[in-house]
TrEMBL record:
Subcellular location(s) of the protein: Membrane
Top-rank taxon, per record: Bacteria
Keywords attached to this entry: Lipoprotein, Membrane, Palmitate, Signal
Membrane-topology descriptor: Lipid-anchor
Signal peptide interval: 1-24
Primary site of residence: membrane
Native source organism of the sequence: Aquitalea aquatica
UniProt lineage: Bacteria, Pseudomonadati, Pseudomonadota, Betaproteobacteria, Neisseriales
Protein name (database record): MetQ/NlpA family ABC transporter substrate-binding protein
Keyword Cell wall biogenesis/degradation annotated: no
A GO-annotated cellular component: membrane
UniProt similarity note: Belongs to the NlpA lipoprotein family.
Length: 269
């Protein structure tokens, strides 16, 4: 009996040490460049002061961060809004869920060739996001600008095939979202993301001919985890640090060129 109690005590101690080791392990968060990466880096510095180690892993596309999360190379990612997440869950079968809300970023329509939509010529080239969700958001903005009309009822799920009226015979070029900033000078009009524009030092992110609205919460960024680690206390603590840190808020504003019309903090709504 005495030997049995010693064995149980040793197992309990081993379990405690393993638990402590798990808590001490660095949390890995996947991000994309610009405001998302910069703000998470600041939050990681804040977390370190509280004893939480965080590794920030940067990606240049919108596919790999979810693949890495599914394969457990990441503990969470921070680059996608709810509409994008819902779509990849439906199409890819990922077992993901949001664990916190973040930045609500506006999108805009940018041009280096025209100053107003009336100057857009027939057959002009328009660059738009290639993924179905952000493409739908871009098409809604083009409709808001009076350049196209979508079929009734498609809303944010609209695709190029859903364009019911295109009086200027605009020619669309599909480009992956993070790369849109690189093609603005090659087309007549481009959907754009201010935080990528700031990160690339390309041009004035506030120069869009039109911006989307700030009141559509489904486009606010999410911290996303797998179903099996969504309650990880390290992750929940990190989200809390991110949302409550004055340094993070200051970095976000800096990342958006100190221009409040380019973003809002969705968790404060």
């Amino acid at each position: 009996m005495k030997h049995h109690k010693k064995k149980l005590g040793a197992l309990a101690l081993l379990g405690l040490l393993l638990a402590q080791g798990a808590l001490a392990a660095a949390l890995k968060i996947g991000v994309t460049p610009g405001a998302y990466a910069d703000s998470v880096q600041v939050a990681a510095q804040e977390a370190k002061k509280q004893g939480l180690e965080v590794d920030v892993v940067e990606f240049s596309d919108w596919t790999t961060p979810n693949v890495a999360l599914a394969s457990k190379d990441l503990d969470a990612n921070y680059f996608q809004h709810q509409a994008f997440l819902d779509n990849v869950i439906k199409t890819q079968g990922f077992h993901f869920r949001p664990v916190g809300v973040g930045i609500l970023a506006n999108i805009g329509l940018y041009s280096s060739r025209i100053k107003q939509f009336g100057d857009l010529k027939t057959g002009a080239k328009v660059a738009i996001a290639s993924d179905p969700i952000n493409q739908g958001r871009g098409l809604l903005l083009l409709q808001k600008a009076g350049l196209i009309k979508l079929r009734d009822g498609v809303g944010a799920r609209g695709k190029l095939a859903d364009i019911a009226s295109n009086p200027r015979k605009l020619e669309f070029v599909e480009v992956e979202g993070p790369q849109l900033v690189r093609v603005v000078n090659d087309v007549d009009l481009a959907q754009g993301y201010p935080h990528f524009i700031v990160a690339a030092h390309a041009f004035d992110p506030g120069s869009a001919l039109i911006f989307s609205g700030k009141d559509d919460e489904q486009y606010a960024l999410r911290f996303v985890a797998r179903d099996d680690n969504a309650r990880d206390p390290r992750l929940l603590k990190f989200v809390q640090i991110y949302q409550n840190s004055p340094a993070v808020k200051a970095q976000i504003r800096k990342s958006y060129a100190n221009n409040d019309k380019l973003y809002s903090l969705a968790w404060l709504k």
